[in-house]
Write a structure and sequence with these properties.
alpha/beta; 4-stranded parallel β-sheet; 6 helices; 47% helix
């Protein structure tokens, strides 16, 4: 069984509902993944919670959007995943979004 950190960053900001996120997580669980979702797990020191989720996971799945790319915390979190050699997958949740900043490097290799 693989551990997966499902990083969503403000689901409402990228036109995907919390229900849709939970449905994706449910499907991943059916396929044998332990899933940590930031929409449920962010309590206490956010930096510490993010670091623990990245440390725990085998796979890092980020739902990317313009809001995701604009977030310093998202950039830090995905950098932590890269530094720990985690498998990184990006799920584009904003139809016309094209990364043009720091996220471009990841999206060219890891888009779903």
């Amino acid at each position: 069984m693989h551990n997966l950190a499902f990083q969503t960053f403000k689901a409402t900001a990228f036109k995907i509902s919390a229900l849709e996120i939970l449905q994706i997580a449910s499907e991943l669980k059916k396929r044998g993944y332990n899933v940590w979702i930031d929409v449920r797990g962010m309590r206490g020191d956010i930096d510490d919670v993010m670091a623990q989720a990245v440390k725990w996971c085998d796979v890092f799945l980020a739902c990317i959007s313009e809001a995701y790319e604009a977030s310093d915390n998202c950039r830090i979190e995905i950098s932590m995943a890269k530094d720990r050699n985690k498998k990184i997958f990006l799920l584009q949740v904003e139809q016309d979004f094209q990364p043009d900043g720091w996220l471009r490097e990841y999206s060219e290799k890891n888009q779903m």
